[in-house]
Amino acid sequence: MNDSAIDYDRYDHVRPIRWNGETLELLDQRVLPFTVVHEICRSSDEVAEAIRALTVRGAPAIGIAAAWGVVLAGRGLETADAAEASRLLEPAIQRLNAARPTAVNLAWALARMGDALAALDPGDDWRAALENEALAIETEDLAANRAMGRAGAALIAPGSGVLTHCNTGSLATAGFGTALGVIRAGVADGRIARVFATETRPWNQGARLTVWELAQDGIDATLIADAAASHLMKTGQVQWVVVGADRICANGDTANKIGTYQLAIAARHHGLKFMVVAPSSTVDMGTASGELIEIEERDPAELLSFRGKRVVADGVSAWNPVFDVTPHALIDAVVTEKGVVERPDAARMRALFGA
Ligand SMILES: CSC[C@@H](O)[C@@H](O)C(=O)COP(=O)(O)O
C-alpha cells in the first residue's frame, strides 16, 4: 500500500495537543466523548499536572506534551546563554519526568530536549532551538504512525478481524495512531473486515475514546467488555490482537495498558496473532527485560467509583496497577517506523535497534 491509498485528512479530526505560539492547548481526554473542551497550559507545571491527571495520555502524546512543557518552562527565564538555560530548566524537566513512570516516551522526549540545548553554541537562540525540537518530535511522531500503519496492515491477511485494547489513536499520538493507525490503514485497503475494541476498565479508554475516534472515521467498530475477549477469540471473529506500547524492552517484553498481558495469553491459546505497534521512541534498549519496568499504580478510586460516585461498599480496598508486561514470547510482531521485528527476542531487537 502507498500513501495515496489513504486519505489522511479524514483522520485529522482529533488533535490532542496544539501549540499556539504562547500556550499549549490540550484536548481534555477525561471528559470525552460527550464534552469537547481544551485545557490551556501556561507553565511546565501545568503540563506536568495535565499528564499526571490524564488530561493528555498515551505514550507518544505525553512525550510530545512534555516537550512543549519544556518550551513553556523556557519562557520564564531571563538568560540568553544556552548552558545556563539548560541548568535552570533542569528542575522543571525533572518535574515533567516524574508525572508518570511507565511510558518511556516521556523520558525520551525530555532527553531529546536536553540534548538539543546541549548541542548549542553560546550565542545561539536557545528558545528557538527548543521550539524547533518540540515541533520535530511532534512531526516525526505523525510520520512514524503513518509508516507503521502501512507496515502493520501489510502483515494482516485480507478479510481479517482484529481486536484492540486501550486507545492508541490520534488522541494518544501526534495523529493517526499506532495500533489504531494499523487498523485505519488495514480498513482502508480492505484487509481488516471487522474491528473490536475493549472497554479498557477502569478508565475506559476503549469505550470513551477508541470507538469515538473510529465512529468519526466512519469505521464500524464493536465494543466488548474486557471480560468478553477470550470468548470473542473462541468465536473465530478475530485473527489478530493489535495493541500499542508504553515501553518495549531490549528483549521485546512490552509494557502496555493493564489487560494487554491476558489478551496475549488468550490469543496464543486460540492460535491468534499478537501485534505490538509503537514508534522507536517507545523502545527502551537500556532496560533489559520487563521485570525492570516500573508499573504505575493509580488511585483505587478509579475502581471503587463510577463517574465520581462510589459503587463499592465502604471499607473495601482495591489495587489499581494500570499497566502490565507482556513477555516477548507471546508477541508475534513488533511494528515500528524503523521496521518490523517478528517473534521479538534480544538478538532480533538488537539487530534493528542496536545495543
Ligand atoms: C499509542 S498509545 C500506546 C499506549 O500508551 C496505550 O496503549 C496505553 O497504554 C495508554 O495508557 P494511558 O494510561 O491511557 O496513558
Q: What layout of secondary structure does this protein have?
A:
Blueprint lengths: L16 E3 L4 E4 L10 E4 L2 H9 L6 H17 L6 H16 L6 H15 L7 H28 L6 E5 L14 H10 L3 E7 L6 H13 L4 E3 L4 H6 L5 E4 L3 E3 L4 E4 L2 H10 L3 E5 L5 E2 L16 H4 E2 L2 E2 L12 E4 L6 E4 L2 E4 L3 H8 L2
Parallel strand pairs: 4-5, 4-7, 5-6, 7-10, 8-11, 10-15
Antiparallel strand pairs: 1-2, 2-3, 8-9, 9-14, 12-13, 15-16
Name the features.
single chain, alpha/beta, Four Helix Bundle (Hemerythrin (Met), subunit A), Rossmann fold, 2 domains, seven-stranded mixed sheet, four-stranded mixed sheet, 11 helices, 17% strand, globular, binds 5-S-methyl-1-O-phosphono-5-thio-D-ribulose, NagB/RpiA_transferase-like, amino-acid biosynthesis, IF-2B-related, isomerase
Reported by name, the CATH topology of the largest domain is Rossmann fold
Provide mean pLDDT, rounded: 96
The CATH class of the largest domain, by name, is: Alpha Beta
Broad structural category = alpha/beta
Quickly count the helices: 11
| Beta strand % | 15-25%
Q: Which small compounds were modeled alongside the protein?
A: 5-S-methyl-1-O-phosphono-5-thio-D-ribulose
